[in-house]
Design a protein that fits this description.
single chain; 7 strands; globular
Length: 197
């Protein structure tokens, strides 16, 4: 069965490759903020928003990949009930880390499988991450070391690198934090017969 990842994220692609999956990556072409806006107005919880976005990405790619199993995924970061989006530059990254400093935020990661426009399965997992208290001086040094790769993450950090130094406590699955609930996906692929069990 052909697998397609509806994403241009190198992090998600690496997770799938490391798991031994053979797939094609095709970026979904949707306006995420436009899809998200009515969901925010309806006051849906972050996990539901992540799930709708994951499904929308897979549904967007599915028509061009007849018969393929399309994997859509999305992640939503929330702090005190407010949904935050990726920052545009290093100054935004500095402000984001200081905003998260000493607080617990949540990452809701969703995944969906779509074949020929039909949603076969979707799943959401949540992680809670507490950053330690960070001084502005430390944040500046940290960002200088981490570099602009932090801009690819909504939290302006990467847990798999020097970003791990920012955390005081992590509750949740590593793959959920990375934006792809991989264990649940692999179990569903086995159930569907797309992977050997």
């Amino acid at each position: 069965m052909t697998l397609v990842l509806a994403s241009s994220s190198p992090f998600r692609a690496t997770l799938l490759k490391n798991a031994g999956l053979v797939f094609e990556a095709v970026a979904a072409r949707i306006d995420e903020r436009a899809v998200e806006q009515p969901l925010l107005e309806a006051d849906l919880p972050p996990g539901d928003i992540a799930e709708v976005l994951a499904i929308a990405k897979a549904e967007n790619v599915s028509p061009a990949r007849t018969g393929a199993l399309v994997i859509g995924s999305d992640q939503v970061l929330s702090l005190d009930g407010e949904i935050l989006h990726k920052v545009a530059d290093m100054e935004g990254a500095r402000r984001r880390l200081l905003q998260l400093s000493g607080k617990t935020h949540h990452l809701d990661s969703a995944i969906a499988l779509v074949r020929d426009g039909e949603v076969l399965w979707s799943h959401v997992e949540r992680a809670a991450i507490t950053l330690r208290h960070l001084s502005p001086e430390f944040v500046g040094r940290h960002l200088a070391e981490a570099g602009e790769t932090v801009l690819s993450s909504v939290g302006a950090y990467q847990i798999e690198g020097v970003g791990v130094q920012l955390f005081e406590k992590i509750e949740g699955d590593f793959f959920t934090i990375m934006g792809l609930p991989l264990l649940a996906l692999l179990a569903e692929l086995r159930r569907l017969g797309a992977q050997e069990g």
